[in-house]
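During the practical work, I worked with a single protein chain and the tokens that describe its fold, as given directly below.
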Amino acid sequence: MITLTEENYLKALYRLSMGQEPVSVKSIAGLLDIKMPTVTSMVNKLAEKKLVRYEKYKAIELTERGKKAALHILRKHRLTELFLTQVMGLGWEEVHDIAEQVEHIQSERFFNRVDEMLGFPRFDPHGEPIPDASGKLPVMNAFPLSNGTPGKKYKLAGVLNHEPSFLTFLNSLQLALGTAIEIKQVQVFDASMEVVLNGKTKTVFSSLVCENLLVL
């Protein structure tokens, strides 16, 4: 049996493993805002359960069993976020903390039913891929708007920053998944972009905003 705390660690490990840097006790402590000795103790427990591979001074890696468990938690989290937005009408800036609680429900039947009710979706309200019941992730080909080309038109497919303040900012621009974005010009000085949204609204995105918008 995997505890609630262990599930949170596995999810954090999976998230960190998607980055460029090796996963360490320090990086886990930073992400979860927990003291390093506490993290070391938990990582040792996860290693005893064969959920991670851990040797002192070496990168921490999820085992296949650990990865499967992490993807299962992500599936529950992302399905919950989509249910809260599509069925209950909550904003995409409101759902993360609620999903953090719901993801620990153990009923497979419950989440499989949610999946079915939503039509077996492939992506959550932030554009993150949702693992299917077997743990398989759909392919995501989106890339940061900052890598886009002036004169080209794209569609918003996801966001990298899930902070409520950022999502609320996007709401103020009426920017949502599926919004058409045409890059008119990129400023050499600060990499800010002049864009047109849905063919009518002109605005300027900072380089930081562009880096956090995923488009197709």
